């Protein structure tokens, strides 16, 4: 009886450790997703073209091509998308520069992300 309780306790400890690991992983995914959504919101506020945004997304998906999708790939895609969005030149322009040339924001040839 005592041996059975010890084994049951060990199984419960392992399950708890797996749950904690999954909680941490999901927390990282949530944090990364929030960062990506914030960058997308900033780009939307700056009137980035749908074409430029589509190119960023396609570039991200192309660079993360993997024949065996899994949990790690999700975080990799979010990381890559965040890097692609962060590298977008439109986010690095000065506010004065944007205010002086609002027409350039709508031209997808001027914006290279």
Tell me what the structure shows.
The chain has 113 residues and is mainly α. It folds into 2 domains: 47 residues; 44 residues. The protein is built from 5 helices and no strands. Helix 1 runs parallel beside helix 3 and helix 2 crosses helix 3. The longest helix is centred in the first third of the chain and has 44 residues. It is elongated and about 70 Å long. The protein starts with a helix and ends in an 8-residue tail after the last helix. The C terminus is likely disordered. Keywords: Coiled coil. It holds the Pfam family CCD48.
How many strands appear in the DSSP assignment?
0
Tally the helices.
5
Q: Give me the secondary-structure category.
A: mainly alpha
Q: Which overall shape is indicated by the principal axes computed on the Cα atoms?
A: elongated
SSE topology string: HHHHH
- The average pLDDT is 80
Please estimate the helix content. over 70%
Please describe the topology of this protein.
Blueprint: H1 2-45, H2 50-63, H3 71-86, H4 95-100, H5 102-105
Q: Could you provide a short overview of the structure?
A:
This protein is 74% helix and 0% strand. The protein has 113 residues and is mostly helical.
